[in-house]
Design brief:
It contains 8 helices and 23 strands. It is α+β, with helices and mostly antiparallel strands and about 400 residues long. The chain has 2 domains: about 190 residues, no CATH class; about 170 residues, no CATH class. Strand 6 and strand 7 form a beta hairpin. Helix 1 crosses helix 5 and helix 5 crosses helix 7. About 35% of the residues are buried. About 0% of the residues have low confidence.
């Protein structure tokens, strides 16, 4: 097995860029910073510019991120695990509103400052308290007072990342479009645009809104992008009143909150997990094996999202038995090959993070050069330690042949 770069090019993008160290499993997931690294194989462009964003989505904006937030108090070093599920909402049945929320370090949720357009004439204001609402109103109004108001949306299909910037100016006392262009970095001052895709529930409508994320981003979430000028104009007229809206702020305690999220999983999460699987393949089988053309599709999927990854998130009914009873405070990852119905060899990686359902990623559906020995990787995420064993050794250590069941966990 060779870990040397036999081509001088990045094993992912096949470009001759500068290299830096890629962690097989990120420290944020409890990976081993010392022993599970890929040196001289992954370029800076892929590792630092692309993979960092994919990992951030998985760790902070997904089901895995939520489980991490509950089970793994700290990521790398002394930093606390962060979780921020975009699209998380609280259903206020009394006001008949969906309220944008985020999660606090204490395990509580907080209502984000927001302006909700209930209809053409009625506007609702909501926040955890008046102070963040006023601050949000001042920041948003400052953006709207600029000569050019930038409305920013991320181009999700571009690699490297790019951003679509739509400029709006005031002409004849109204906002009007003043052109659209693409930038590699978003402007520091602007309003981020998100599609409103959430569905109504229990007769409560999900209205268009402007709100402020925990990181400070101002977000406009609407159904119809042709109405951006309309909403900018409404905001320009209503935001100056925010400081006087204390009586109208929806701020109260919810004894039995009903919380939902529209963004617990995305294609970027699939790509981040596939990247971990492919990194393990490189670590296990070496760079020459991982450079075989049968893995070109999965590398393209990781880099660009195309072709769509052959992934599935298990619901508990079809979980591979060997992953059903992982050690406490541990992820379990299994890499295996098999023979397809047409006689070809496939290679698959199965992940069980934080005791959740099993995530399955096919690194290759066919044409793998040869079978590999099935390997089990146990990641003790609070200790940042990884151990690996063959399937037979894992079963000997964890399975009771007399009772024909996995040994109970008393850890």
């Amino acid at each position: 097995m060779s870990m040397n770069n036999h081509t001088g090019m990045c094993i992912y993008c096949k470009e001759s860029n500068d290299f830096n160290t890629e962690h097989v499993i990120s420290a944020g997931l409890g990976g081993d910073d010392n022993n599970y690294k890929l040196d001289g194989l992954v370029c800076f462009e892929c590792n630092s510019k692309l993979f960092s964003g994919l990992e951030a989505t998985l760790l902070r904006h997904s089901l895995v991120g939520l489980a991490r937030w509950h089970n793994q108090p700290k990521g790398r070093g002394k930093s606390f695990s962060r979780y921020s599920a975009n699209g998380s909402v609280l259903i206020d049945s009394e006001e008949r509103l969906f309220l944008e929320i985020d999660y606090a370090c204490s395990g509580e949720f907080t209502i984000l400052p927001q302006v909700i357009f209930k209809n053409d004439s009625e506007t609702k204001y909501s926040a955890s308290s008046l102070a963040p609402l006023v601050s949000f109103g001042e920041k948003a109004l400052n953006i709207l007072k600029q000569n050019n108001v930038s409305v920013i949306s991320k181009n999700k299909n571009s690699c490297p990342a790019s951003f679509l910037i739509s400029n709006y100016v005031i002409s004849e006392n109204k906002f009007k479009s003043d052109g659209t262009f693409t930038l590699s970095k978003p402007p520091a001052l602007g309003i981020w645009l998100e599609p409103l895709t959430s569905k109504d529930k229990d007769g409560i409508s999900y209205h268009s809104r402007l709100f402020q994320m925990k990181d400070g981003q101002i977000v406009l979430k609407i159904k119809d992008n042709s109405k951006i000028e309309y909403y900018l104009e409404r905001l320009r007229k209503s935001l100056p009143e925010v400081a006087d809206m204390e009586a109208g702020v929806v701020s109260k305690k919810f004894e039995r909150p009903v919380i939902g999220s529209s963004s617990m999983w995305s294609g970027e999460c699939d790509r981040a997990i596939a990247k971990i699987g492919f990194n393990l393949l490189i670590h296990n089988m070496g760079s020459i094996f991982a450079s075989h053309p049968c893995f070109d599709d999965v590398k393209s999927s990781i880099l660009t999202g195309n072709p769509k990854l052959p992934c599935s998130l298990g619901d508990g009914k079809n979980i591979v038995e060997v992953l059903e009873n992982p050690p406490s405070d541990s992820h379990v990852i299994m890499m295996a090959s098999g023979t397809s119905q047409d006689g070809g060899i496939y290679l698959v990686v199965l992940f069980r993070f934080y005791g959740m359902g099993t995530q399955t990623v096919f690194l290759a559906r066919d044409n793998v050069p040869h079978h590999i020995e099935t390997m089990i990787y146990t990641v003790r995420y609070n200790e940042h330690k990884i151990s690996e064993s063959t399937l037979s050794d894992y079963l000997i250590a964890n399975y009771d042949l007399v009772s024909n069941a996995f040994l109970p966990r008393n850890e």
